[in-house]
Amino acid sequence: MLGFLPRPVIRAAFVGLVVLAFLLPNLTQPYTIRVAATILVFTVFATGLNLILGFAGLLSFGHAAMFGAGAYISARLLLDTGMPLLAVMVISVLGSAVFGLLVGLTSWRVGGDYLALITLGVGQIFYLYLNNAKEVTGGATGLPGIPAGNFFGWDLALIENIYLFILVVTIVTTAFAWLIGRSFLGRAFLAIREDEVIARAHGINVPLTKVIGFGIGSGIAGLAGVLQVLLLGFVGPATFNVDQSILIVEVVLIGGMATTAGPLLGSLLVIGSTEYLRALADYRSMIFGALILIVLLWKPGGLVQILGIGDTRSSSYKFPFSLFGRRRTAGETTPNTHARVEPIAEEVRP
Predict the structure, then answer these.
(1) For residues 206 and 196, is the Cβ–Cβ distance under 8 A?
(2) In the 8-state DSSP scheme, what is residue 133?
(3) How far is the C-alpha of 193 from the C-alpha of 215, rounded, in Å?
(4) Higher pLDDT, 282 or 166
């Protein structure tokens, strides 16, 4: 749709939108600022799942559990300790990443629909734990009154400051995901998504790469959980149920898998419409379901493909992720990737 525009025009429009996003607190009402902050939180949330689902092709219906892990870890630290916000964010992200690594270990043995069912079970177990561990999570009523604190003297008590803080974190996270997508690790994800056998034949450690993908994506989801706590000042189990996991899958599919702008576009449409179309609350799930069908049948690349503003091609940028695969050195011959076919002995009939 916008593919006819020259790239300089698209880049200038992108810079203009970023400047407008920073000026938003001075232009609109607090309600709109809160809606925009919610969209940014889900952009970070979807960015984590995009690495797992979009790039690596691993369907997860338990990503809300990673989101919730980051939220509850940060909530307990903010309520019980006087720890600086940066330390709280680091610990929450690491805690969610370790949780994701443990879940990702299941991808060593299973994949496809079976992995989706396992992650669905993990999400349900986590949701039941939140409701029953009242001493830790507050049970069904959650944990209210969580202080936002400050970030190196930046007071986050006002909604305008929280919005700007979330905006900065979203930009940093998106840039990190952009680098991952164009690194060797990102190309390894795409190779695994297309064909695991060929990826293994090219020297990619498929099981380790899958687990790393789960760890990174879960850490980013945990970061989104921290932002959610800062925005709401409250955390409760209702935000981290299976419906939330399905919602974030919808965001990634509609926005565009394996793209940098997809999570933002998907969040703008799905989360923005959720907030502004409350009158259609009973029909929103039906609308989103129909929208996914239309997108998958018409333009599988989602809004990014429909607008024509991005692609998933890898660039020549090199990122130090050679740990996850072996690169051929000069003079080394290409290994024979064709499987040797043993001759089948002809059955001797009596």
Answers:
(1) yes
(2) -
(3) 17
(4) 166
Tens of pLDDT, residue by residue over 125-138, are 999 999 998 888 88
Backbone phi, then psi, for 155, in 5-degree steps? -70, 125
Question: Which residues face 155 on adjacent strands?
Answer: 150
Asked if pLDDT for residue 59 goes beyond 60, the answer is yes
How much is the pTM?
0.83
The DSSP secondary structure of 145-172, one letter per residue, reads -----EETTEE--SHHHHHHHHHHHHHH
In this prediction, residue 330 carries a pLDDT of 45
Selection from 162, 312, 285 nearest residue 233 by Cα: 162
What's the confidence (pLDDT) of residue 250? 87
Q: At what angle do helices 206-232 and 63-80 cross, to 10 degrees?
A: 50
124 CB burial (10 A radius; 0-12, 13-18, 19+): middle
Q: Which residues pair with 151 in a beta bridge?
A: 154
